[in-house]
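Hey, I'm writing a tutorial for new members on how sequence and structure tokens pair up, and I'd like a real worked example in the thread rather than a made-up one. If someone can provide the structure for the chain below, I'll link this post from the tutorial.
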Amino acid sequence: MNVTPSGWVFLALTCMFLPLMAIRTAVRVRQPGRTPTRVRHLASVFVTQAITLPPALSAARYDDIRLFPSPNLGAFNLAMVLAFLVPTLGTLPMRWSWKSEAEKRRMIWMLPHTSVDLWWWTIVALTAGIVEEIVYRGVMIGLWQRVLGSWWAAMMVCVVVFSLVHFLQGWYAMAAIALTATAFHLIVRATGDLYTAMTVHFIYDLIAGLVLLQCARRDGLLPMDASG
């Protein structure tokens, strides 16, 4: 268990504090009349990224976790990107249709509503794609692997934590997020770096927002001519 104090501080923050705060927020939001505005949601997203990235980079430095090796991009990386994006994005409308109307309504305030919203949605997708890969697929799994002595066990812990952090989206969404997180870990393990996973994560979040916007309009949850 060769983990420095910096590493333990990071693990306590990300594996205990963040899931507890996510559960607390979900309970509060689900009370009648407590749905937050998109501005508050955006603020919470960026605050979470801001408080997790510095401890992650500190732990990577003091625990000697190499996050950014020289890239070795090629056809294999492209194949990994397509192998993830084609089935996940292709089945997204079907997975949306499986949700109840109540679940859909709980989600739409987190999504872009108009083309005007795309600027902030792009920033959210890019930030999540970079920061979450560093935090969960870079630093967290590296530390848990040292603690548990097994990459697979460390991956399972990271997947559970990542899913709990998204508790606000509900149990069904968390199950899908767990599968997605597992895929990201496998991509990192197969490619040997975070770059491909970051790219996939960003593209998926960006396009998923656009697809779900159209699905919400189709279901009458948002007006077809919404403009802000």
